[in-house]
TrEMBL record:
Gene3D superfamilies, A to Z: MTH938-like
Name of this chain's protein: Uncharacterized conserved protein, contains Mth938-like domain
SUPFAM superfamilies to which the protein is assigned, alphabetical: MTH938-like
InterPro entries: MTH938-like_sf (IPR036748), NDUFAF3/AAMDC (IPR007523)
Matches recorded under CDD domains: Xcc1710_like
Any one Pfam family match given in the protein's UniProt record, by short name: DUF498
Sequence intervals crossing the membrane: none
Top-level taxon of the source organism: Bacteria
Length: 123
């Protein structure tokens, strides 16, 4: 028996594939930051090697309870020093490949959690 309707009130990742995601049906091939509270903006990087500490400091400004970092086609971890602004604010950071990050973001956002997905979409 189901007691709640199927509703997704946050930004939703509706599809994904190698090098692209669709957010609420709109396909993009550029790295993107997406928040369950409505923020969405381009993340200025197209390769893991382009990332810097500033990219993660930008995420700390969003005040999420957890950041899901999609590191591209394969799992890679940001250096701990880059995560320091998030750690200081007690924001959890989970690293996974981008497709797994899409699925995880949708689950957490669907539960009403304040989650941010930082999705690296490599060319």
């Amino acid at each position: 028996m189901k007691f709640q309707p199927d509703r997704f009130e946050a930004n939703a990742i509706t599809a994904y594939g190698p090098g692209w995601v669709a957010i609420d049906g709109e396909k993009t091939s550029t790295s993107t930051v997406l928040s369950s509270r409505g923020q969405r903006f381009e993340w200025n990087c197209s390769r893991f090697e382009d990332l810097t500490a500033e990219h993660f400091a930008q995420l700390a400004e969003l005040g999420a309870e957890v950041v899901v970092f999609g590191s591209g086609a394969r799992l890679r971890f940001a250096p701990p020093a880059w995560l320091a602004p998030l750690t200081r604010q007690q924001v959890g950071v989970e690293s996974m490949d981008t497709q797994a990050a899409c699925r995880t973001y949708n689950i957490l956002a669907g539960e009403g959690r304040h989650v941010v997905a930082a999705l690296l979409l490599e060319e």
